[in-house]
Amino acid sequence: MKAVFFLISFHLTFCFAALSQTNLTFQDLYQKNIPLFQDIISGGYYLDPPKEIEGHPYFISRNLETSSLTINGLRYQKVPLSYNIFTDELITFQPIHKQKILIRPDKINAFEIEITGKHTFVIVPENPGYLHHRKGIYEILDVGKVNLLQKHYKLTKPKRELSTYTSVFYEKSDYFLQKNKEIKRISKPKQAFDFLELDKKIIRKQLREKQLIFRENPAAYLSFLTQLYNKQDLLP
To answer: Which residue from 7, 76, 15, 64 is spatially nearest to 40, judged by alpha carbons?
Structure first.
């Protein structure tokens, strides 16, 4: 495969001042470190989306953002990443060939992107029956005995009005509660209460005080319930 995984070399670029005292050039460093990552090189070159689709397929921003990435248990800082939520693929940049490349999802543990706040993503190996599982990348909103996950994805729909574009990207998301190996999609409050075995009568007052309404802000609503479950001592 011609695809080259560039994590270490880009990280070294940000640390170049510290390395300038050595006799190694940037490309020497690249050639020295790349053999360590042969098992994750074969993600392939990334092709930009078709120009006839209006908008972009990425998570919040179309730009490569300075991020962190954990692969095979090793964490790397200052990695340029972009997350395509239409294809569910993680993208980085290979400067020697000046080419965007894909990172193999089976080697990713987690990654963080800072765009309007920090967003942490993890890989969920399986989610049987869920149509948009794809490569299994989910944002993790709460961590504990129960995890709260959000699946971001984009779809396309035809443009109705006369335009240079044939279709347009639009974004959706689904929410999941994960306990041990069980994962449950939550599309209405009752599903969350049943999964967490919480008594709605006891918690209703707190929900009203915090003005949490599921259909208006499902992330905040489910985060509140998840944190209550993970801190059972807070329940009356």
So the answer is: 7
Tell me the HSE value of 177 on the side-chain side, using a 13 A CA sphere. Answer: 26
CA dist., res. 141 & res. 150, Å (int): 7
Given CA atoms 113, 116, 120, 121 in this order, what sign does their dihedral have?
negative
Count Cβ atoms below 10 Å from residue 41 Cβ, excluding itself: 19
Pairing of strands 167-179, 53-54: parallel
Whether the pTM exceeds 0.70: the reply is yes
Sequence-distant (≥ 6) Cβ neighbours of residue 107 within 8 angstroms:
39, 40, 71, 72
167, 156 in Cβ contact below 8 A? yes
pLDDT tens for residues 98-125? Answer: 788 888 888 889 999 999 889 999 999 9
Q: Is the pLDDT of residue 31 over 60?
A: no
